[in-house]
Every structure is written in C-alpha cells, then in structure tokens.
Amino acid sequence: MADFSSIAQAFVGHYFRSFDDYAARDSLASLYRPESMLTWEGKQIQGAQNILDQLKKPELKVVKHQVTSVDSQPGTNNSVVVLVTGSLAIDNAFDRPLQFTQAFTLAPIPGQPGGYFIYNQIFRLVLG
User: Fold this and answer.
1) pLDDT digits over 50-76, tens only?
2) Considering the entire predicted model, what is its pTM?
3) N or C: which end of the chain has fewer CB within 10 A?
4) Contact at 8 Å (CB) between 74 and 1?
5) CA gyration radius for the chain?
C-alpha cells in the first residue's frame, strides 16, 4: 500500500483549500462518486451532486477552516481512513470559531492507480 499518511495529508490540504474557496468548491465534485455517502450533522446524503448541493448551501458560502489534527490509518482494500479535527469560522466570525470533527474513508478509484475518492464522510460540530 502507498504511504497512507502522505495520502491523508495531501487529501486534507486539497479538500479544505477547495472548500474554503467558494469559487473552487465545485471542484470537490471530482472527489465523489454515485456511491459516496456524507453524514452531515446526522443527515445522510448520497451521490456526488447531492453532496455538493449540501456543501454549497448559502449559509456555508463563507467558511474558513483551521485544521488542528489529521490522523490516518490503512483500511480494507487499500482504503485510507482519515480523522480531522479543527475549528471553522462562518462569515469571517473568527472571534467565534466552531470546533468540528470530520472523518473520511478514501477508497481507491478502480482503474486509476494512485487515485482515491471519498467513499464515506462524516461531519459534526463539537458543541458544549
């Protein structure tokens, strides 16, 4: 298996840079496939377009993430499990950051050596 830690670090850098640039957020669609599933604060969403629709909701237009930690492990069938923690500011409210945790399972893209897509993704704000 490739270096799962390097894969996770590269993925996290790309994902959050793209998410934080609203104009570039559409490019995240290439990271999802029809079988991809996102659980966003308990709501399950499946498929690339449905997931992108969630990530592009108007209330999420201006979001800036600060990643605190990235942990990763190798998974079954050459997948990579990634757990991210950090804070985010909505509408540039840097004085009121929200803590979050996000988990990803990155699965190899069939027929594309070295390519991965988001098979599973879970996002939660850490409140209280």
Assistant:
1) 999 999 999 999 999 999 999 999 999
2) 0.93
3) C
4) yes
5) 14
